[in-house]
Design brief:
It is built from 15 helices and 18 strands. It has 460 residues and is an alpha/beta fold. The strands form 5 sheets. Strands 2-1-3-4-5 form a 5-stranded parallel sheet, sandwiched between helices. Bound molecules: iron/sulfur cluster (SF4). Iron/sulfur cluster binds next to helix 7.
Length: 460
């Protein structure tokens, strides 16, 4: 960008940003932190169309995510051309993943790249740029940031649910995963900071806390040399109220008997756990460096099932070592365990990961075909689960109004944004987001449900 244009920015006092958060909920929390830092510096927030700053918090976990980020940045570049004084800031995982020289070359129109460790000073950096013009500060290259309960954060989810990020980074080094190199080493928040933030969120009206991290079961290993997740959950469960706690991203190798015992006895915990298994074949798991094998994985699954937990998992097809036989085992597991919710990715090699150099990778086409086979199997399972609910009462969390007399929500086991939906008709009562109501299931499809809420008549 020419210097004269930067000076125009200064004169016009640009101060309204539109935010785009790509990728996962963990990234979303950082968008919330950046948003708060903008407000602190007097930079307003706006919907697209009203803004003169675009902030894009990127994901870089997979090539497809980087392509999506690039597309958003290029679109912002086109938007910038239309009017002088517009600014573009790019933060998040792409900035941690790709060397800054390459980013500047690919996106010369971006005014400010924000490194992970600068997340909470995003507003300050932007304000400086607005005042002084020129090029923004170089992004930090360290990866040590983890927010605390006193870090300003603007909740951008619906008011009734919020993410509680308990750690960042990962030390697991799964051979397909770029996360440790992008997000850095495991760093856990202090338990007091997490508990205080949970209390603050609940006091402010949050009804559902979604506990997240790259690997929640590893929480505290960097602080105490062992997982502190059981202790943390016990403390979180003591907070009074009728809120829910939802636990995501457990690594099966970290699901110990001690943890299961705690999970079983928690009052606030949703009886559905998110636990990415990735595969079941021993050789594939070894190649993936998942630190758990077939027998142990099945044992964990059995124990969780016995404790009446529904499970959401993720699988990866087409990883090196996945023979026909290995894939057959994965398909059998899907048929046998009948996971309530399931996602599948076809492996795509990421440069810089050990998996990318491993021999024995099935073709990309085979990986994709296998992904589809698993999804088809899961669709049948999902339909069966839904059909079993026909004519029954289910508890639904109301998320938002849809059209007149219809609200959209989810069953208790479903997490916002990623899971199935329930459309709730209510003709006699107005529902509000965050309400939990018992509804009669009237129609089901493979994934979604139509239900009706009728308020109980008061006895005379
Ligand atoms: S547990 Fe494995 S897959 Fe998950 S973030 Fe860590 S390295 Fe990546």
């Amino acid at each position: 960008m020419a210097k004269s244009e930067k000076n125009t920015v200064k004169k016009e006092n640009v101060s309204v940003a539109a935010l785009t958060s790509l990728g996962c909920a963990k990234n979303f929390v950082e968008t919330e932190i950046a948003a708060a830092s903008f407000l602190q510096e007097g930079i307003g927030l706006a919907a697209e169309g009203e803004e003169n700053i675009r902030y894009i918090n990127t994901c870089a976990f997979l090539k497809s995510a980087r392509q999506e980020a690039a597309q958003h940045i290029r679109e912002a570049g086109e938007w910038k051309k239309q009017k002088k004084g517009r600014l573009i800031c790019v933060g998040g995982c792409l900035v941690a993943h790709t060397p800054i020289e390459e980013l500047k070359k690919e996106f010369p129109f971006v005014d400010l790249f924000i490194g992970i460790d600068d997340t909470s000073s995003s507003g300050k950096l932007l304000k400086e740029l607005l005042k002084k013009g020129g090029t923004g500060k170089e992004p930090s290259t360290t990866k040590e940031f983890i927010y605390e309960c006193n870090t300003p954060r603007l909740q951008l989810t619906a008011p009734h649910y919020a993410y509680l990020k308990i750690s960042d980074g990962c030390d697991n080094c799964c051979t397909y995963c770029l996360i440790p190199s992008i997000r850095g080493k495991l760093r856990s928040r202090k338990p007091e900071s997490i508990i205080q933030e949970a209390k603050n969120l609940i006091d402010s009206g949050v009804k559902e806390l979604i506990i997240i991290a790259q690997d929640t079961s590893a929480y505290g290993k960097d602080l105490a040399g062992k997982s502190l997740l059981p202790e943390l959950l016990l403390e979180l469960d003591k907070i009074g109220g009728d809120h829910l706690l939802r636990l995501m991203y457990l690594h099966p190798a970290g699901v110990t008997d001690e943890l299961i015992h705690v999970l079983k006895n928690m009052k606030h915990l949703v009886k559905c756990l998110e636990m990415p298994i990735q595969h079941i074949d021993g050789d594939v798991l070894k190649n993936m460096n998942r630190k758990i094998f077939e027998k142990e994985t099945e044992e964990v699954l059995k124990k969780l099932k016995k404790a009446s937990f529904a499970l959401r998992t993720t699988f990866m097809t087409g990883f090196p070592g996945e023979t026909e036989e290995a894939f057959g085992k994965l398909l059998s597991l899907v048929k046998k365990f009948k996971f309530q919710r399931l996602g599948v990715f076809a492996y795509s090699p990421e440069k810089g990961t050990p998996g990318a150099k491993m021999p024995g990778r099935p073709s990309a086409k085979t990986g994709e075909e296998r992904r589809k086979i698993i999804l088809e199997e899961q669709a049948k399972i999902s339909e069966k689960y839904n059909k079993a609910l026909l004519g029954k009462m289910v508890e639904v969390i109301i998320d938002a109004p849809e059209v007149e007399n219809v609200w959209v929500g989810r069953t208790i086991i479903d997490a916002p944004d990623i899971d199935n939906l329930v459309y709730v008709e209510s003709f006699d009562a107005v529902l509000t987001p965050g309400m939990r109501v018992k509804c009669l299931v009237k129609q089901v499809s493979m994934y979604d449900i139509l239900a009706e809420y009728t308020p109980a008549k008061k006895k005379k």
